[in-house]
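Task: sequence design from structure.
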């Protein structure tokens, strides 16, 4: 039985249930085409069975490398962009201590991220830290020529070799790349780096359950087997229950498309847990790159409440009515804090004394949903009992499959990203890249 639930009660004042259920046959058709790998982009459907197909040998290798890195490094730098870092960061920040890098005693390396931007100041600040810390890195790229991570890796490789010597440096570099081709694979073979494979049939934004995500998550000290367990449970449930009324994947995909057809063109993913901020960033890439094609698609935006209620809350409440919200609701936090009584009561908060912060947070969540619905914003609620490895695995598979089905409903290929190349062409021309270097 899966833990995740979807509630669409706060959508039904905006879209009739019959309209949502009208997608049942289409979703069943798309579920079948995904399972049989017959739809658009079918050569990139390897992610659908990663959780059930991954070998114990691969998991043991990842876990062994995690133990090895823990022994030699205080810091582990993940060099990648897009799906090469967002999935790992989403899981690590959701599961980890909010201020882990500030703790005096650390059981596992601090995970830092690089190659996801081209800010000179960011990289300079990173090097300041790496000058003083023992570190290792993973570089993630199928080709090895993606500009941002390639530049960063060149700099960090140089830094590592100067700090530890060439022979010792190579023991601190793990390349996650194509199995047999590309610049990074060629370099890894030449230098003798440990390597893991990005499967040919898995695109970057769907790769969190490959070594791309699993290695840094394991190094951060989390149980990757339980993440895969959660994803596998969702995979099995989806395969056994493809129709709308029983399946949260089908309910979510059909509801968001029904809203889109009623001029709700922006989806705001909201959470009342700051640890899910980067999960939202992962979700934004997943849906943005998958659906935003052919002048179609729901625009994916994200907020973290209650923080953003004091910034974007006004727009959501009273702005242009082309938006709907999807809220990830977490029943139970990891820890407990109660509000103390104060004799002076100058802040007038004694009526809350003895209550848990979580109770107040949940009432803020409920109050926000009710206010936004009253303000003309439909709301989809996705509930999980708590944030742990298993529920995150469920959420990952839930959103990945929902995204694939939604893309097919739109009539686009949810597994390519042709528009991403447009800025690169202009940038290379401005930098004077020659034809021989392309």
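Answer:
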């Amino acid at each position: 039985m899966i833990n995740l639930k979807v509630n669409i009660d706060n959508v039904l004042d905006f879209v009739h249930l019959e309209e949502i259920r009208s997608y049942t046959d289409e979703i069943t058709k798309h579920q079948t085409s995904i399972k049989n790998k017959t739809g658009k982009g079918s050569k990139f459907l390897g992610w659908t069975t990663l959780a059930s197909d991954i070998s114990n040998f691969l998991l043991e290798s990842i876990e062994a490398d995690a133990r090895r890195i823990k022994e030699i490094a205080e810091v582990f730098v993940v060099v990648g962009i897009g799906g090469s870092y967002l999935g790992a960061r989403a899981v690590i920040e959701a599961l980890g201590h909010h201020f882990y890098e500030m703790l005096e005693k650390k059981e596992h390396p601090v995970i830092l991220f690089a190659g996801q931007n081209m800010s000179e100041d960011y990289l300079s600040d990173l090097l300041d830290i790496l000058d003083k810390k023992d570190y290792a890195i993973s570089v993630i790229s199928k080709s090895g020529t993606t500009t941002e991570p390639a530049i960063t890796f060149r700099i960090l490789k140089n830094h590592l070799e100067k700090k530890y010597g060439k022979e010792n440096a190579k023991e601190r570099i793990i390349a996650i790349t194509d199995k047999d081709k590309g610049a990074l694979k060629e370099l890894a073979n030449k230098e003798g780096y440990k390597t893991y494979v990005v499967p040919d049939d898995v695109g970057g934004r769907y790769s969190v359950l490959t070594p791309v995500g699993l290695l840094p998550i394991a190094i951060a000290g989390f149980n990757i087997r339980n993440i895969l367990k959660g994803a596998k449970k969702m995979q099995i449930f989806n395969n056994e229950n493809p129709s709308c009324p029983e399946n949260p994947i089908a309910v979510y995909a059909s509801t968001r498309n029904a809203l889109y057809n009623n001029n709700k063109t922006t989806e705001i993913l909201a959470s009342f847990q700051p640890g899910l901020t980067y999960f939202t960033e992962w979700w934004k890439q997943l849906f943005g790159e998958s659906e935003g094609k052919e002048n179609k698609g729901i625009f994916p935006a994200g907020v973290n409440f209650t923080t953003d209620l004091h910034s974007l809350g006004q727009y959501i409440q009273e702005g242009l009515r082309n938006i709907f919200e999807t809220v990830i609701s977490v029943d139970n936090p990891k820890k407990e804090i109660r509000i103390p009584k104060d004799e002076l009561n100058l802040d007038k908060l004694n009526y809350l004394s003895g209550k848990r912060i979580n109770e107040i947070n949940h009432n803020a969540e409920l109050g926000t949903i009710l206010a936004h619905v009253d303000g003309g914003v439909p709301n989809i609620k996705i509930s999980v009992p708590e944030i742990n490895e298993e529920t995150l695995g469920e959420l990952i598979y839930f959103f990945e499959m929902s995204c694939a089905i939604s893309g097919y409903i739109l009539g686009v290929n949810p597994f390519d990203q042709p528009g991403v190349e447009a800025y690169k062409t202009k940038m290379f021309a401005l930098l004077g890249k020659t034809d021989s270097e392309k």
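The longest strand covers residues 323-332.
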